[in-house]
Amino acid sequence: MSVLAIVGGRVHSAGAERQATVLVNTETGLIDDVVDADSLPEVDRTLDASGCVVLPGFVDLHSHLRQPGNEAAETIETGSRAAALGGYTAVVAMPNTNPCMDSAAVISEVLAAGRTALCEIKPSAAITIGREGETLAPMAEMMDLGVRMFTDDGTGVQDDQLMRRALEYASSLEPGDGTQIVLSQHCEVDALSHPGVMHEGAWSAKLGLAGQPSEAEELMVMRDIALARLTKMNVHLQHLSTAGSVEMVRQAKAAGIPVTAEATPHHFCLTDAACASYDPVFKVHPPLRTESDVAAIRQGLADGTIDAVATDHAPHTPDSKERPFDEAPPGMLGLETAFALAATELGLPLERLVDLFSTTPARIAGLSDRHGGPVESGRAANFTVINLDQTWTVSGEDLASLAVNTPFEGRTVQGKVRHTVLNGEPVVVDSKAAR
Q1: Which CATH superfamily groups domain 58-365?
Q2: Which of 181, 214, 221, 340 makes a 20 to 30 Å CA pair with 267?
Q3: 54 three-state secondary structure
Q4: Is residue 312 annotated as a catalytic residue, yes or no?
Q5: Catalytic residue among 312, 319, 389, 430, which?
Q6: pLDDT per residue over 160-202, tens digit each?
Q7: Could you tell me the CA-to-CA distances from 224 to 42, 60, 194, 214 in Å, in that order?
């Protein structure tokens, strides 16, 4: 047996924290034991975790890895490297690729490409063929390949009856492994949001840019909560951005409706005032909102209304992001900066951050058997080691993504990933990718 030891760190597990050494069987990929810090048996390799905390690996419910079809912006390999450097051991890849992830053939291609990635790649699949909102995709075939989340992300399913049919179809699917099928929705009513390129409000009027009203998001949130109540099917609401959306989810949960929600770092850190520079790096869908919306997102993250922080990692080539604001594609990088931004900005206890980044997203994605669980004997060795006190400055050029479109350029944040271990293999060592 080959043994890896993580020494000198504080192991945070199941709400408790203690100085301890984590022993990993690198052949099985499992945690062999967690022993007292002063008790170190003979091992083959050690990683120093002094001054750091050992946490369950993070799980991102919302990453755009661009492969297949747009590898100039990102690949599964480069995206997974960014993820590992950000503390992630699993990411859910969005289906708006070219070709679209709407068939077993494309899902198989993504799974094959992910076998050598630096984190687990869990593909989601489109609800409708081509994400065109007209014909349901063959969900059962893709479920058999391991898909558990279905979404037309980038476009919401506009047709009410089609969305109801999708939920009813999904409710009949039985993975048979203790997980559940979840339909994940990009909440945006196209008829209200088009041709808006930022939030509709005082700043859009001042800048002379077409706006998207909050109601474009909130009407679809309202509809999908109603459909979840009707069908009793799990609905996950992506990247909430308005106070109204947060309050509707809060009320839905109180009523026992099976709905979960995520929010992004840019929606709890930035407001539409950032668009005053006309810099397309701040263009995103849903758009950056107002200070009161940001406050509502933060409150929702704190009180459990919002279940997970998701990155909506959306790399774009530099030339595409250098177009005029109204012509540039929406989206921002997120994988390497998400945890540090949350640790710096939200003021939440570490246990809540673990819930938002690890435990709950792993459950929603159907990955709880190997991700997001306590750091303890017998569990899969998927964890990250973070120096919570280390400060660093965000630089797009220094990030592992092929793209550089971070809206946090030059921002100083606190919390740096030192090591990330995937299935017993150190894929990040001393803040550098190991392969």
Answers
A1: Metal-dependent hydrolases (3.20.20.140)
A2: 181
A3: strand
A4: yes
A5: 312
A6: 999 999 999 999 999 999 999 999 999 999 999 999 999 999 9
A7: 55, 22, 20, 16
